[in-house]
Amino acid sequence: MERSGGSLATLYSHFENKQGLLKAVMERSREMKLAGLMEAVDGADTCCEALKTLALRFHDFLNAPSAVAMMRIMIAESLRDPVFARQFYCRGRDEVTAEVAALFQRWAYSGRAAIDDAGEAAALFMATTLSDTQINAMVPAEGRPCREAEHARLIWRVEHFCKGFGIR
């Protein structure tokens, strides 16, 4: 703040409170990342390759130092205000899951996937690919699996997901 010539009071005058500032930062970050994630799908040769790329990008995004720092802030804030944290978490998760569900729906209509419930398939994909990514991201770097091992695990999971839903 000192380098910018401003003060916390000036910063907070643009937001209701610290939560308002945190919400604005998180939403902007999520919007930018969601756009980048879904771009990965457009450039893939196959639907399964698109899902692999999507899973790896989710993983790398959640393990980026800035994302880990933000998760830690949200965890701390959730202790003070569980409702705020829950709303934010659910909104982010629900938006990404809805984007994946829309993708699955398009694939099912075009015959590139045998998905009868795109919403549930998207929820399963998110759970399958992200289940331990967020937890591992919170572990100090020296205690977590290496990036290559995590990527190999994700690719294996996505390949089996694709086989189960007939995704080509």
TrEMBL record:
Annotated signal sequence range: none
InterPro entries reported in the protein's UniProt record: Homeodomain-like_sf (IPR009057), Tet_transcr_reg_TetR-rel_C_sf (IPR036271), TetR_C_Proteobacteria (IPR039536)
Family matches, as SUPFAM superfamilies: Homeodomain-like, Tetracyclin repressor-like, C-terminal domain
Domain Transcriptional regulator TetR C-terminal Proteobacteria type: 49-152
Superkingdom, natural source: Bacteria
Protein name per its UniProtKB record: AcrR family transcriptional regulator
Species name: Sphingomonas jejuensis
